[in-house]
Backbone:
């Protein structure tokens, strides 16, 4: 960490970026928050707006519109820049356009002398994280995507409702691509310390696997549903970014389903960045928690990996 001063640079001050910034201010996440956007006027206005809220917050955060040179001593560079998903458009269709955007951002961050952690939210997030890794030349542990963090939060919320249990006592993950091929490995889901499959077996009149599968579909389609109703999703992901950044800045070693590079886990293709439970601390995503998946779940994860790899291979970086 730089001089005990916790500094974050946010690139992309649109809806997602500013939802993150607003949540960061309310949580006193860092000491310095720098805003960068291709639309500089917007970044200046956003910095002014947030600064006017400082008096009402518990934070003494320094917030200003900056340049890529400001990344030099930052702990984290959060990237939310890009073009947004249109109704009906798949995340992978965004890929080509957002790769061009990243080619105009990542090299400038690296040239500043930045030595912290990249945290990427732009969609399709798994591939954009891999693009960041390739463009930066950084160690893979220091390039993290938001992955299925938000999907996992959505899942735990819905399971909490279904079982009428505090979501914090539900341990279940969404893994794979943040997108259409993501899935829930139910074999690994537990309520407190009781496997969900045992909860179902002991309460077969009340709960069923069919209902759980419906919940996983609801999780997968939630983003499209929100986009159809209000045009974009931003609050949830803004808070997810704060959660990951907090785990990094506080050296928490928390388990979060970020997008990180596979190093041969699950027998899947190496080098693919994909949502996976990972231990996050000030070193970034150093350790993947490899789950004991069933053969069927490994097949689903391989399918997700192949989709991400095939799409990445279409890019010329
Ligand atoms: P937005 O259009 O509101 O904001 C994007 C911002 O990026 C704009 O301010 C734009 O000026 C800026 N920008 C574009 N090109 C730039 C460049 N070259 N350099 C610097 N800034 C640039 O979009 P949004 O709603 O904030 O969404 C941002 C991204 O986040 C999208 O890709 C969206 O799909 C993604 N997203 C991800 C998740 C997730 O779970 N990971 C959830 C929601 C949205």
Residues:
């Amino acid at each position: 960490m730089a001089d005990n001063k916790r500094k974050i640079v946010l690139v992309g001050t649109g809806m997602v970026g500013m939802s993150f910034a607003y949540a960061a201010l309310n949580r006193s996440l860092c000491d310095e928050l720098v805003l960068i956007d291709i639309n500089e006027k917007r970044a200046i206005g956003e910095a002014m707006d947030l600064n006017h809220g400082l008096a009402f917050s518990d934070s003494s955060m320094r917030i200003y519109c900056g340049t890529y040179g400001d990344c030099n001593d930052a702990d984290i560079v959060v990237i939310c820049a890009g073009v947004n998903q249109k109704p009906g458009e798949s995340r992978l269709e965004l890929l080509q356009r957002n790769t061009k955007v990243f080619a105009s951002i990542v090299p400038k961050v690296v040239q500043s002398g930045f030595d912290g952690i990249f945290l990427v939210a732009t969609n399709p997030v798994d591939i954009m994280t891999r693009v960041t890794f390739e463009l930066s030349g950084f160690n893979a542990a220091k390039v993290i995507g938001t992955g299925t963090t938000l999907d996992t939060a959505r899942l735990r919320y819905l399971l909490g409702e279904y079982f009428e249990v505090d979501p914090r006592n539900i341990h279940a993950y969404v893994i794979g691509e943040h997108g259409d091929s993501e899935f829930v490995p139910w074999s690994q889901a537990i309520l407190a310390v009781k496997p969900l499959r045992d909860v179902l077996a002991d309460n077969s009149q009340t709960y069923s696997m069919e209902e759980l599968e419906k919940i996983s579909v609801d999780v997968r389609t939630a983003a499209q549903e929100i986009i159809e109703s209000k045009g974009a999703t931003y609050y949830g992901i803004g808070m997810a970014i704060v959660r990951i950044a907090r785990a990094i800045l506080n050296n928490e070693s928390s388990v979060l389903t970020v997008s990180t590079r596979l190093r041969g886990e699950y027998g899947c293709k190496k080098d693919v960045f994909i949502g996976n439970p990972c231990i996050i601390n000030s070193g970034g995503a150093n350790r993947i928690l490899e789950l004991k998946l069933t053969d069927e779940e490994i097949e689903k994860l391989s399918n997700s990996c192949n989709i991400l790899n095939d799409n990445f291979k279409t890019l010329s970086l």
